[in-house]
Amino acid sequence: MSKNFAGIELGGTKTIVVQGRPGLIRDRLEFPTTTPDETLSRAIEAIELWQRQDALQAVGVASFGPIRVARDVPDYGTMLDTPKSGWSGARIVQPLADALRLPVALDTDVHGAGVAEWRLGAARNCRVIVYLTIGTGLGGGVLVDGEPVHGMLHPEIGHVRLRRLAGDRFAGACRFHGDCMEGLLSGPALEARFGRHPSRVDAADPAWTPVVHDLAELLAALVLTLSPQRIVVGGGVANKQPHLLPAALCRLPEILGGYLRDFTPEVLAGMITPPAMGDNAGPMGALILAERAAAE
């Protein structure tokens, strides 16, 4: 008999709650992410219903952040200072564990999606991978042999600053750093730059030129610092602007400047890809996190 798990993808805009097992989502519920109490209560209600119908083994949570992911500290599962209003200091793991009486595993949303792409999607058979999501924010997760990399906290790739395109005067939109990568490439940043929704800006419009440059700079930094076998680029902005990644890939060899001959345009095009799992990567990753928690 197959084991069943619950997974929660806790996003800054919407929350997805699923039940099933890695490779199979049986039930799925989506709703807006509002306050911590309301959002977690809705997730608990759905999981309790599924638990009555079919015993669940554990819960996995793939959450926006920054969030405390080290399990050996008192504030494990607590949201740190986040741009999401009302969520700084919110406890995520404890309310779920108390209500559901199940093991609860937590990691970042990008690590959850990365785990799914490593096991089931675009990064299978790759030892070192990066999952990059460009949406309401910009986040990056790093995995080695399928295990998320944690140090003092977790990678905050979206908040690095890199070389800007000469003449680009956009100040950036990050409330912490201004023109970090999240402040330049996220959906709200693009809307602030363009003065309208990015979907209303034609792909051929030169307004995209500095955006393409910024993404290419970020990809170059990841290639050079981590030497991954795969960089998977997902998220709402990347998925809804399909011209953006190919344009950045065209710019990337120039930014790399001919350094490291292994990184030919053909190699880079195979190494840096869209996600294979689409919108299911985060929820599926949460189920994999739950499976791992149940096995401990």
TrEMBL record:
<protein>
    <recommendedName>
        <fullName>fructokinase</fullName>
        <ecNumber>2.7.1.4</ecNumber>
    </recommendedName>
</protein>
<keyword id="KW-0862">Zinc</keyword>
<keyword id="KW-0479">Metal-binding</keyword>
<dbReference type="GO" id="GO:0008865">
    <property type="term" value="F:fructokinase activity"/>
</dbReference>
<dbReference type="GO" id="GO:0046872">
    <property type="term" value="F:metal ion binding"/>
</dbReference>
<dbReference type="InterPro" id="IPR043129">
    <property type="entry name" value="ATPase_NBD"/>
</dbReference>
<dbReference type="InterPro" id="IPR051804">
    <property type="entry name" value="Carb_Metab_Reg_Kinase/Isom"/>
</dbReference>
<dbReference type="Pfam" id="PF00480">
    <property type="entry name" value="ROK"/>
</dbReference>
<keyword id="KW-0460">Magnesium</keyword>
<keyword id="KW-0808">Transferase</keyword>
<dbReference type="InterPro" id="IPR049874">
    <property type="entry name" value="ROK_cs"/>
</dbReference>
<keyword id="KW-0418">Kinase</keyword>
<dbReference type="InterPro" id="IPR000600">
    <property type="entry name" value="ROK"/>
</dbReference>
